[in-house]
From TrEMBL:
Cofactor: FMN
UniProt entry keywords in alphabetical sequence: Flavoprotein, FMN, Oxidoreductase
Lineage: superkingdom: Bacteria
Binding-site residues, glyoxylate: Y33, Y138, R173, K260, H284, R287
SUPFAM superfamilies registered for this protein in UniProt: FMN-linked oxidoreductases (SSF51395)
Keyword Oxidoreductase: yes
Positions with a binding annotation for FMN: P86, V87, G88, S115, Q136, S282, D315, S316, G317, L318, R319, G338, R339
Pfam family, one: FMN_dh
Species this chain originates from: Maribacter litoralis
Cleavable signal peptide: none
Protein name: L-lactate dehydrogenase (Cytochrome)
Family per similarity comment: Belongs to the FMN-dependent alpha-hydroxy acid dehydrogenase family.
CDD domains on file: alpha_hydroxyacid_oxid_FMN (cd02809)
Length: 388
C-alpha cells in the first residue's frame, strides 16, 4: 500500500491547468526552458497529437471484477504504470523541485528518475526515496568520472541506471538562446524584470539559495554562465553514446540497465544485443530532432517486433491518464512523463508532485473502468486503432 492519499486540488483538474498556472508563476526564461521543444517545435507538437490519434474501445456489458493499476517492472511492483522522467535544472523552475517530486513518487510508489544535471544529488534523492530512485547518467568523457558516478549510484542502492542515447549534440532551442539561459540565472536587465514579476518564485529561490548541479558539484568549477557551462558540459560529457561505450557500463553495473532515447528499430535491436534490460522509446520530449517521428509510432513497431525480448517503455508527449492508456495499449509496458510533473510543481509548489500523480492515477483508473480493463497488461486488448 502506498503512503500517499489521492489528493487533487480541484482548481487544477488537468495538466493544461497546471501548465497555465506554471506560466503565471515562474519567470519567462524558466518557463520557456521547460515548455519548449527545439527549432520550430514540430516534433514537440506531433508527440502529443499522434498519441491522441490512438483509440480505445469501451466495454460496458462485460463482467468486471475491478481495475487495478499496479504494474510490475524489473521485479518491483509499482502502484501505477507511470513514472517521473529525468529533467535537468529542476531547481531553476521551482526550488526543491527534485526533492518534492522524489518524495511524492516514493509515497505513491512510482519511480522517480534523477538526471545527472538536476539540482539535487544522487545521495540526497536516495535518502528521500529509501534507495528506490533511478539515476540517469549523461555519458562522461573521462572513464574516471563515469566510474565514480556509477559507483555513487550503486552505493546509493539505486536499482536502475538509465543511460541516454539522444544527446549527441544539445538540442537547438531558440527560446533558450534568446533568453541567455544560464545556471545560476543570469542577471541581465531582461531576466531581472522577469524575476521581479514573479515574487513567490523569487522569494522561495532567495530562501532556498541558487540552484546548483548537486550531483556534479564535486567535479565542476563554481558559478558558470551559459558560455562557461556549455564549455564545461562539452568537455565533461561526450553526448554520443555507442555500442563500445555501453559494453563496459553493462559489465560494471549490476542492477538493471535502461537505454533512454531509442526511436528506431535498429537502436532497439542493438540494445538487446548489448544485454540492456529495458528501453525507453523517447525523443526527449521533442527537444532534440525536430524532423523526427513522434514516439508513439516507433513504439508500436518496436513493441511488436521486440516486446518479448526487452522491456519496452515510452515517454514524450503524454499529458493525461488517457494518454498513458493509449501508450500502454500501443505496446508500452510502462510510461514516463517529464513536463507534466514540472508544470505541477511550478504551479503548486510542495503539493504539486502529489497533486499531479493523484490526477494521473484518477484519470487512468477512470479509463480502465470505461474499457473494462482489469490490469495494466490488458490494455492492448482494448485497442481499436494503432499508429505506425
Ligand atoms: C526541461 C527538460 C529537461 C530535460 N532534461 C533531461 C535530462 O537531463 N536528462 C534526460 O534524460 N532527459 C531530459 N529531458 C527529457 C525527459 O526525460 C523526457 O524524455 C521528456 O520530458 C518526455 O516528454 P514530455 O515532457 O512530453 O513528457 C528533459 C526534458 C525537459 C522538458
Amino acid at each position: 500500500m502506498s503512503k500517499a492519499k489521492i489528493a487533487i486540488n480541484n482548481n487544477y483538474p488537468s495538466v493544461t491547468d497546471l501548465r497555465n498556472k506554471a506560466k503565471k508563476k515562474i519567470p519567462k526564461f524558466a518557463f520557456e526552458y521547460l515548455d519548449g521543444g527545439c527549432n520550430e517545435d514540430v516534433n514537440l507538437i506531433k508527440n502529443t497529437s499522434d498519441i491522441r490519434k490512438v483509440e480505445l474501445s469501451p466495454s460496458y456489458l462485460s463482467k468486471h471484477t475491478g481495475s487495478d493499476m499496479k504494474t510490475e517492472l524489473f521485479g518491483h511492483t509499482y502502484d501505477a504504470p507511470f513514472g517521473i522522467a529525468p529533467v535537468g535544472l529542476q531547481g531553476l523552475m521551482w526550488p526543491n523541485a527534485p526533492e518534492i517530486l522524489a518524495k511524492a513518487a516514493f509515497e505513491h510508489k512510482v519511480p522517480f528518475i534523477l538526471s545527472t544535471v538536476s539540482t539535487s544529488s544522487i545521495e540526497r534523492i536516495a535518502e528521500i526515496t529509501e534507495g528506490q530512485a533511478w539515476f540517469q547518467l549523461y555519458h562522461p568523457t573521462e572513464n574516471r568520472l563515469r566510474d565514480d558516478m556509477i559507483q555513487r549510484a550503486a552505493q546509493a542502492e539505486c536499482p536502475v541506471l538509465v543511460i541516454l542515447s539522444d544527446v549527441p549534440t544539445f538540442g537547438f532551442r531558440p527560446r533558450d538562446i534568446r533568453n541567455g539561459l544560464a545556471m545560476p540565472p543570469k542577471m541581465s536587465v531582461k531576466n531581472i524584470l522577469q524575476i521581479l514579476g514573479k515574487p513567490e518564485w523569487a522569494m522561495k529561490t532567495l530562501i532556498h539559495g541558487q540552484p546548483n548541479f548537486e550531483t556534479l558539484k564535486p567535479y565542476m568549477p563554481k558559478n558558470l554562465d551559459l558560455k562557461q557551462l556549455g564549455k564545461f558540459m562539452d568537455q565533461t560529457f561526450t553526448g554520443r553514446l555507442n555500442e563500445e561505450k555501453i559494453k563496459p557500463i553493462r559489465d560494471m553495473w549490476k542492477g538493471k540497465l535502461v537505454l533512454k532515447g531509442v526511436a528506431s528499430e535498429m537502436d532497439a535491436e542493438k540494445a538487446i544485443r548489448l544485454g540492456v534490460d529495458g528501453i525507453i522509446v523517447s525523443n526527449h520530449g521533442g527537444r532534440q530532432l525536430d524532423a523526427g517521428e513522434s514516439t508513439i509510432r516507433p513504439l508500436t513497431r518496436i513493441a511488436e517486433k521486440y516486446g518479448d525480448q526487452i522491456k519496452v517503455m515510452m515517454d514524450s508527449g503524454l499529458r493525461s491518464g488517457p494518454d498513458i492508456a493509449r501508450t500502454m495499449a500501443s505496446g508500452a509496458e510502462f510510461t514516463f512523463l517529464g513536463r507534466s510533473f514540472m508544470y505541477g510543481v511550478a504551479a503548486l509548489g510542495n503539493t504539486g508532485g502529489n497533486h499531479t500523480i493523484s490526477l494521473l492515477k484518477t484519470e487512468l483508473q477512470q479509463v480502465m473502468e470505461q474499457v473494462c480493463c482489469e490490469n495494466t497488461t490488458d490494455f492492448p486488448n482494448h485497442l481499436i486503432k494503432k499508429i505506425y
